[in-house]
Amino acid sequence: MATPGRFNAAVAAALRDARTARGLTIDDLVRTSGMVRATVLRYLNNQREIPISALYTLAGALGVEAHAMVAAAEAACVMDTEGENRIPPPPIEVARRLRLLVTAQARGRGSSDGYTEVSTALADRGVVLTRETWAGLLAGKETEAPSTVLQDLAEMLGVDPVYLRGSRADSRVEAIDAQLEFARAAHDAGIDAIAARAISDVTAQTLRAVTAELDAART
Question: Which of 7, 62, 94, 202 is least buried, going by the fewest C-beta atoms within 10 A?
């Protein structure tokens, strides 16, 4: 779902495209719409939220239907969101998620960085993970990891593989991240019983708010 800011920007872009397609100048649009020039510029440049009344006025001045502008904006937002969701996270973001995942899942108790436990579990799946590769992943450096290592790591650590491979724009990534942050904060606060409870029905926003309170209480 598009955020209000993104949708407004898409509406503004649709209006600009309509003006260009009809060969109209800004002054033409001002004259036809009867609106103040500075206001029209702010709307078209996404410097001000476009109210419904203004959208209908501008669309009418451009000779197009307001609902066509809305449909074009919605389509653009969907394409943008889908495109973002296909962009893989950069190595440094993968490293952050891995460190959080290992910490939240209480891995690494037998070794400082979790390598012994992780590499042993992956070996049972037939995946060889060297210490150098693991160190590179945790450091956010480009590394020649096995092609399936991120998927195997996610499955072995108990999360949807999208968490280590998906874009931050993916709502599934945000939900898992919030749950892991909460589990980490609950563990740090010494309330593992809460951290172990099912929290899949709690929104990411609520979990992040509780996590912030737990972290604040410890500082």
Answer: 202
Residue 115 burial (C-beta neighbours within 10 Å; 0-12, 13-18, 19+): buried
The pLDDT tens digits of the residues spanning 46-76 come to: 788 899 999 999 999 999 888 888 887 777 6
Count of C-beta atoms within a 10 Å radius of residue 208: 16
Other CB atoms within 10 A of residue 198 CB: 7
Token duo for residue 116: 């012994």
Q: What is the pLDDT of residues 79-123, one digit of tens each?
A: 555 454 556 778 888 888 888 888 776 544 555 678 888 888 888
pTM: 0.51
Q: Give Cα 203 to chain centroid, integer Å.
A: 15
What is the mean predicted confidence (pLDDT) over 166-174? 76
Which phi-psi region, left, alpha or beta, contains residue 63 (left: φ > 0; alpha: ψ -120 to 50)? left
Q: How far apart are CA 87 and CA 166, in angstroms?
A: 7
Residue type present at position 28: D
Residues 6+ apart with CB under 8 A from 53: none
According to the 3-state scheme, what is the secondary structure of 108-169? CCCCCCCHHHHHHHHHCCCCCCCHHHHHHHHHCCCCCCCCCHHHHHHHHCCCCCHHHHCCCC
Among 91-95, 104-108, 157-161, 173-177, whose mean pLDDT is lowest?
104-108
**Cβ 213 vs Cβ 189: under 8 Å:** no
